[in-house]
Design goal:
The chain has 196 residues and is α/β, with parallel strands linked by helices. It contains 5 helices and 13 strands. The chain has one domain: Rossmann fold, CATH 3.40.50.10420. The strands form 3 sheets. An 8-stranded mixed β-sheet has the order 6-3-2-1-7-10-12-13. It has a 3-stranded mixed β-sheet with strand order 9-8-11, covered by helices on one side.
Length: 196
């Protein structure tokens, strides 16, 4: 267990540095290509309710993806960190400029007074998950808080789990623990990968 945690932390450091080496213009170009690929997925086109996330730092442009989801006429769900439970609560969002404010770690989050909380987590049909790295078998390397693993443990059956990522974030192998949830798809600027 300790060895797995050390391996994960080393990989996090490496992948974060690699991702941060991309210029803002390069990231914007890659984001656009990834968004086009995700929007073309039949799984997305069939979905009515989409869980997205708001990005921070050098992450994939989650805010641009959330805007696309709304412009496609789908119902958007965004997470908010619940400090009391140390878990994610989900909220319906229809106005990205009016219903969000800076929350945990400087990430834009829904304002509970301006949004309706999602009572049935099973309403989510297509979920995009953040992460630092992904392997083609579906293994995901998050930031270490376990927020999405805990959230997804509460949703059965799982929605379609999709990792939007720059190709440089796809690695051969990611050490896993029993609580780590794997993704079904990885979407990069080059390809849509169905995980095995």
């Amino acid at each position: 267990m300790r060895e797995t945690l050390i391996q994960k932390q080393t990989l996090r450091t490496t992948l974060l540095a690699t991702r941060e080496a991309l210029s803002p213009a390069e990231r914007a170009n890659l984001n656009s290509q990834i968004i086009q690929r995700m929007a073309a997925m039949p799984e997305y086109q069939r979905a009515n309710t989409v869980l997205a996330y708001m990005n921070f730092g050098s992450e994939f442009g989650g805010a641009d993806w959330a805007a696309r989801v709304l412009s496609d006429g789908k119902r958007l769900v965004l997470p908010k960190v619940n400090r009391a439970s140390n878990e994610l609560d989900l909220y319906w969002v229809s106005d990205l400029s009016g219903q969000l404010e800076q929350g945990a770690w400087g990430i834009a989050e829904p304002v509970p007074a301006r949004c309706e909380r999602l009572n049935s987590l099973n309403a989510v049909e297509f979920a995009t998950l953040p992460g630092l790295g992904f392997a083609k078998n579906g293994a995901r390397l998050g930031y270490g808080g376990g927020f999405y693993d805990k959230l997804l443990a509460r949703i059965t059956p799982h929605p379609v789990l999709v990792a939007p990522a720059y190709a440089l974030q796809v690695v051969q192998e990611i050490p896993q623990q029993t609580t780590d949830v794997q993704v079904d798809w990885i979407v990069t600027e080059h390809e849509v990968i169905q995980c095995s």
